[in-house]
Amino acid sequence: MDSMTFVLFGATGDLAKRKIYPALFNLFLDQKMPQSFSIIGLGRRELSDGAFQTNVEHSLRTFSRRFIEDKAKLKEFIDAFRYSQLDVTDVEGYQELLNLVQRRERELNIPENRLFYLSVAPEFFDVIASNIKESGLGTTNGWKRLIIEKPFGHDMVSAQDLNQRLRKSFSEEEIYRIDHYLGKTMVQNLEALAFANPVLQSLWNNQHIANIQITASETVGVEDRAGYYDQAGAIRDMFQNHMLQMLMMTTMHLPKTTSAADIRNEKRKVMESLRPLQKEDVGSQVVRGQYSDGEMNHEPVVGYREEPGVDSSSFNDTFVAARLWIDNDFWRGVPFFIRTGKRMKEKSTRIVIEFKNPVKELYGSDQQTEPNLLIVNINPNEGISLQLNSKNPLKNGKIEPISIDFSTGAKDIPEAYELLIFDALRGDSTFFAHWNEVELSWKWVQPVLEAFEENTVPLHLYRSGSMGPDASDELLKEDGFYWWEYQ
Ligand code: BG6
């Protein structure tokens, strides 16, 4: 792996402390960092290198999944960090940054490979990218890469606008858009599951699949993010990115190779085949919900509108369920049900593939068989279950569903940020969102945003601690299905 400089904007922020430093540290422990590396943290406040290094060590002790008391090893890692104060809007300040980057490149004898990680509010993405270019930081003899986090735009037009601005300083191949769901091991595993198993591959189509359900339920409420969340809602916060990425990963067709280009090409094709939604149809295909008060873990909790910082008459969506159709030869006629929400009964992300059941009445109408299910548990317990029908010898041979379960069982698996940062360091963009995917996702979501904004669809309240509004169950009932909940 190439030696490089990791330039982190937002180095004193929450994401850096909780995710980025621990990820870099775990990569270092696993010998997955380059031979030589320099890490330059940037922030608004004044901080000495020593104080910054102490903060980094503190974040490792607090948030890393592993820690070591080997002082020499720890020092080797921490010594790579330097800090510089920067007002990201001030182009002059970037000169000083360039000097620091170059000085460290000389000291460590590393080539001009530079990775810029923008862990800052999205309104700064384009000014930083442009200042990197103007200052000469982006003019290197080696490679340069840009990592950005969601939200990528607020709607279709703002996303296009942002992309155009970024593209003035970085090419598409140099931009790594993090969607941390693509860093989850079981999301990355979907491709292998469908394509490395001929048994499943032959069933992965509309001949055999009745419907697919993708759920990401959370128990937390808005927390202290009302300022952002009340503008974003579940549709922008989860649906436009994480949920549609999981849909693409589940339904893409077998790529020619598993290269980033081929996989992203297949994902794009899925999005191009997604049946567009007309604004007037949003009400019949999408359910908008908002949590009211209720109980979580036997403790009473307030409704969304009573949360600190939330407008008491807010119509913001904290839950979205939708029915989607992919109009291509593989998936025509199969409904995809997707739902996500806060303050739901369980923290769980999972995909349920329900197979068609032509033998429902094989043993007569009083002994109907259950459909086969393939359940992919993404979070919190990574694993796979296959539900089959089998005779129970203890019940006179009654047909009952049995479950064949696999769970990784490992507590210590790499976190999403570890996998993603490692890929970015290697220049592998497979599990980053390509602009085509982002744009097509906004395109599908746009009429939903408008219908929500214009309030032309109902807002269903649901009790905190439930599985969302009844309207979300009704959506499936219309097609003769129901949500497969946790057993
Ligand atoms: C983030 C959203 O992208 O994903 C949060 O902004 C949400 O609102 C989080 O809580 C969920 O991620 P995970 O990995 O806990 O499922």
Automatic annotation (TrEMBL):
Keywords attached to this entry: Carbohydrate metabolism, Glucose metabolism, NADP, Oxidoreductase
EC number(s) recorded for this UniProt protein: 1.1.1.49
GO biological process, one term: pentose-phosphate shunt, oxidative branch
Domain of life according to the entry: Bacteria
Catalytic-site annotation from UniProt: H242
Involved pathway(s): Carbohydrate degradation; pentose phosphate pathway; D-ribulose 5-phosphate from D-glucose 6-phosphate (oxidative stage): step 1/3
All residue ranges annotated as the Glucose-6-phosphate dehydrogenase C-terminal domain in the record: 192-484
Segments forming domain Glucose-6-phosphate dehydrogenase NAD-binding: 7-189
Residues that bind NADP(+): G10, A11, T12, G13, D14, L15, A16, K17, R44, D87, V88, K150
Binding site for substrate: H180, K184, E218, D237, K342, K347
PANTHER family assigned: GLUCOSE-6-PHOSPHATE 1-DEHYDROGENASE, GLUCOSE-6-PHOSPHATE 1-DEHYDROGENASE G6PD
Homology family: Belongs to the glucose-6-phosphate dehydrogenase family.
NCBIfam families: zwf (TIGR00871)
Purpose: Catalyzes the oxidation of glucose 6-phosphate to 6-phosphogluconolactone.
Listed name of the protein: Glucose-6-phosphate 1-dehydrogenase
Species name: Peribacillus simplex
